[in-house]
Design goal:
Low-confidence stretches of chain B: none
Largest sheet of chain A: none
Distance between the termini of chain A: 84 Å
Number of strands of chain A: 0
CATH superfamily of the largest domain in chain B: Medium-chain alcohol dehydrogenases, catalytic domain
CATH architecture of the largest domain in chain B: Alpha-Beta Complex
Oligomer: heterodimer
Radius of gyration of chain B: 20 Å
Number of helices of chain B: 11
Helix content of chain B: 25-40%
Chain lengths: 188, 382
């Protein structure tokens, strides 16, 4: 009990644990663990430069304003584009990582990106298909009822389809209203 | 090449993409032979991580064969079978020079608060990931290691993140002989952290989750006592009771951003994205650890604020330790433990999914169907 100085007794002795658990105590010495001390100089990394060469920047690369320069190496996946790109670039150029606006704008841009991309896919030979892309067709083969028994997350899983289908319904409503308004204007 | 492509929250598909190119003299292109889906990939899949762009490819746990090398690469050759840490790092910046490989300053222009990670949004640098046939590997002389002959492919892929992260999490917990260690979360990282806690001399290891298949794995694989938090009115009181009302000496949060157990916390973060993560497990950790104890945070959280109980942490005099794992610093010791039979990482693999069926794989893992604990991805070209 914590009301006295003694620690509650353990159910097994070190000898019992060593006999039951492979490798028990192999890293017993805290000073002899791979990340001890946390910061250490002189590790061999394989690098043969002081400052890496600069990767070529083929188009303006957005970066945090907390960086003094573009990093020597960077990812080139999915450059900025569309309205989401405008929002993302604004978030990077205007707000530091310390500002909530930076991250909330990036999250908002993610949602804009999803809508833009879904709409754009409708004009391609492979439009988005929520049925195949969500993987829900796998449900019947993987014990959907038994797997969810007794879990607390079942209470909010109803929200998942709303998040997935919601933007499509919203886009449909917007498109329907726009088309209806255009038809009405054309008739008058 | 064929690659997994993100199409918006909860939606992915496989597409034809251009082969990655050498973009820096120390790049390599690796043909992926086995990749994995990480629990943290689900944060991307659910749209929780800022600047996750439609069209990007996920995947930061992988092994493969070197397909092409840049002109300055000295340590690898075409045809080498390599395992690649999830960290992208230069090896010489202020942080890398001190062993903080996961905090490299030279690889992520998008943020200074996090290093570079393969296939993990532009917030970690905008690199495409390895749930694809090929992947660009920057700083090929620094990150990748040739897979030892004795090492199994699936063991190797688990060394690239989950095992190294779990083992690192146990180290951060400052475990001393006889300590009572509680691990929240019986996913891959939690299971490896629990197993590693024994190596560091823990006297008791207790794993908490709400999914019975995972708790069973915690008992059989990690030799741990288990507690299903749904069977207790208040899990913190149960943790106090089971530790003689003292609290655990060390607690490890191996859950992170999408923790369940508190509806409001989960919905405001995982569903409405108004928090960087649902700190349910972290708050339970803070309240379950004893005064003066240590909380090790291995769960991944986004960069937005989260409603964490810092008052309790301060008043209890806790030590909070956390970081992304510097994977390669762990490898020599992990390899030793694997050769000795102390760690058997591939025992937790439950599903092997062809790349072409990865949408179903993500759904099974996300919805935790069929006892899914660790799914691997096998590209068709392998």
């Amino acid at each position: 009990m914590p009301y006295t100085a003694d620690k509650p007794p353990l159910p097994e002795t070190p000898e019992q644990l060593r006999a039951r658990i492979p490798g028990w105590g192999a890293d017993l010495d805290p000073a002899d663990r791979p990340s001890s001390p946390r910061e250490v100089r002189g590790l061999k990394t394989g690098a043969h430069w002081d400052l890496p060469e600069q990767q070529e920047e083929h188009q303006p690369r957005e970066r945090s304003i907390e960086h003094a320069r573009l990093t020597p190496v960077f990812g080139t996946s999915v450059p900025l584009k569309g309205l989401s790109g405008v929002v993302r670039r604004y978030a990077y150029e205007r707000f530091s990582e310390a500002r909530a606006a930076h991250w909330l704008l990036l999250i908002a841009a993610d949602r804009v990106d999803a809508v833009e991309s879904h709409l754009a896919s409708l004009f391609t030979r492979r439009p988005d298909n929520p049925l195949t892309e969500t993987g829900v067709l796998a449900e019947p083969s993987y014990h959907p009822v038994r797997s969810r028994a007794g879990r607390v997350d079942v209470r909010h899983q109803i929200l998942d389809p709303v998040i997935v289908v919601g933007p499509w319904v919203l886009a449909g409503v917007v498109v329907y209203r726009r088309v209806r308004a255009m038809v009405r204007r054309a008739r008058t | 090449m064929r690659a997994m492509v993100y199409r918006g929250p909860y939606k992915i598909r496989v597409e034809e993409k251009d082969l990655p190119l050498i973009e820096h003299p120390n790049d390599a292109i690796v043909r992926v032979t086995t990749a994995a889906i990480c629990g943290s990939d689900l944060h991307l899949y659910h749209g929780l991580m800022p600047d996750t762009r439609v069209g990007s490819t996920f995947g930061h746990e992988f092994v493969g064969v070197v397909h092409e090398v840049g002109p300055s690469v000295r340590n690898l050759s075409v045809g080498d079978r390599v395992m690649v840490p999830f960290n992208i790092y230069c090896g010489t910046c202020y942080f890398c020079a001190r062993g903080l490989y996961s905090n490299c300053h030279n690889v992520n222009p998008n943020a200074t608060a996090v290093g570079g990670i393969y296939g993990y949004s532009h917030t970690t640098g905008g690199y495409d990931g390895a749930q694809a046939e090929y992947v660009r590997v920057p700083f090929a002389d620094v990150g990748p290691t040739i897979v030892p002959d004795w090492m199994d492919e699936e063991d190797a892929v688990l060394c690239t993140d989950a095992l190294a992260t779990g083992y690192f999490g146990a180290q951060l917990a400052d475990i001393a002989e006889g300590d009572v260690v509680v691990v929240f979360g019986a996913g891959p990282v939690g299971l490896f952290a629990a197993r590693s806690a024994w190596l560091m001399g823990a006297g008791r290891v207790i794993v908490v989750d709400h999914i019975e298949d995972r708790l069973e794995m915690a008992r059989s694989f990690a030799y741990a006592e288990t507690v299903n938090f749904t069977q207790h009115k208040d899990i913190v009181v149960e943790m106090k009771r089971t530790t003689g009302w003292l609290g655990a000496d060390r607690v490890i949060d191996a859950v992170g951003a999408e923790a369940d157990g508190h509806l409001l916390q989960h919905v405001t973060s995982a569903k409405l994205k108004l928090q960087g993560g649902s700190p349910v497990a972290l708050n339970w950790a803070i309240d379950s650890v004893r005064k003066g104890g240590t909380v090790s945070v291995m769960g991944a959280y986004g960069p937005i604020f989260s409603a964490v109980k810092f008052g309790d942490a301060m008043n209890k005099g806790l030590t909070l330790r956390m970081n992304q794992a510097p994977v390669k610093r762990q490898w020599p010791r992990l390899f030793e433990h694997m050769r000795n039979g102390y760690l058997t990482p591939s025992d937790i693999v439950t599903h092997r999914i062809p790349l072409e069926h990865i949408a179903e794989g993500y759904h099974i893992f996300s919805a935790k169907l069929d006892g899914c604990i660790k799914p691997l991805v096998v590209p068709g070209a392998a």
